[in-house]
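Lab manual, section 2.4: Encoding a predicted structure.

Procedure: take the sequence of the chain (424 residues), apply the prediction step described in section 2.3, and record the output as structure tokens. A sample record is shown.
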Amino acid sequence: MKKMTALTMSLVMSGAMTLTGCSQTESGKPAANGERIKLTIYSTANDKATQNVYKKVTDDYTKQHPNVSFELQFPGNDYESILKMKMAANDMPDLFDTHGWSQIRYGKYLADLSQESWVKDISESMKPIVTDKAGKVYVLPLNAAKDGITYNKDVLDKYNIQPPKTLDEMIAAGEKIKKESNGQVAPFFFSAPDSASLAQFFDYYATSLLISPPKNYSDDLLKGSFDWANWTPLAAKFKEIYDKKLMNQDVLTVKDADKASLFAQGKIAFVTGGPGFVPDALKMNPNVHAGIMPVPAMVDGDEPTFSGGERFTIGAWKDGKNLEVAKDVIREFAKPENLKALSEASGTPAGMNGINPDLGVFTEYYNKYKDIRVFPYFDRVYLPSGMWDVLQTASAQLLGGKLTPEAYSETMKKEVARLKAQQK
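Recorded output:
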């Protein structure tokens, strides 16, 4: 207790020796001799490579401004629940990642960044996502999401399989891999304890089933007249993959963090989602080869698609006591070299013009699929806030035998109605 008291007194005395408030330069940036400031940054980044870039950017900022330090938080699975509690208490982090909800969920907590110099460089595809009709800019897009399937090229090459264009082709490929590997390779990887793994499958393939085909249910979903029985085929396909033992059979207990190791060992073939985990896999096995592909189609006559939108972003809490410093930190993240590093670490395209990341082998794939349609994430357009947890939980219950595909659809119908009523 004495040590804590001494530290507190030291900080008070240090603060008393500085000017009240934050000392500013003419450019509006915090001066190095300002009061001691500690900013908290929350991010959804789970992979170490991306987290390390955050640390480097903030360390560099502290070198320029020794009075400013940072507390970096990467809560992983708990991110959404923690931010919900902070919103309820109106006690947000100084800077935080909006993980796809910059306007709808977090908009009223975010400062307007429209006067920042980097705004002019936001890519055309990102503008409607991070900017509203009134011109408010909510966040700096640190990279862009163009998500599909990450696959182990070594496994596909070994079993002479081309990237599937339909989900049925993908299941057939999985059966071939399982048979010819004598069950040593799990064609699909999922993790029920992870907050996103199962839900991600449904979010991507809901677009393939319900949105991307010429005859689709977009209007019905938006108007609230959608017949949720049309969800059942998607749940049935997911259960089919499980029943055929085409996914890792420890799906209900395995940690998502094990994915990189299994990929590096060639024990899994297809991962639903982006390649952010691949740098970790390469550290374990520099000879492993990864590829990316769009999400296969589910309806006859349709084509594969990508899901897109925000990946990692950074915005400032509008009521933060160090708002101007927080905005300046965003300027640090907006430097081309930092945006390039974040894209390269996460293996994703940039969300800003003029940034040309070297994505290694992934550059080849993004170029190959440059004309593939990109749809917004299904849940961000067609589901009310709170449905992500429902997707994850109901999917686990489906695999655990507690829900049938039909019951899953009924759960979706009830939960959508409940959450919409709560949010009115």
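Check your result against the sample. The chain has 17 helices and twelve strands.
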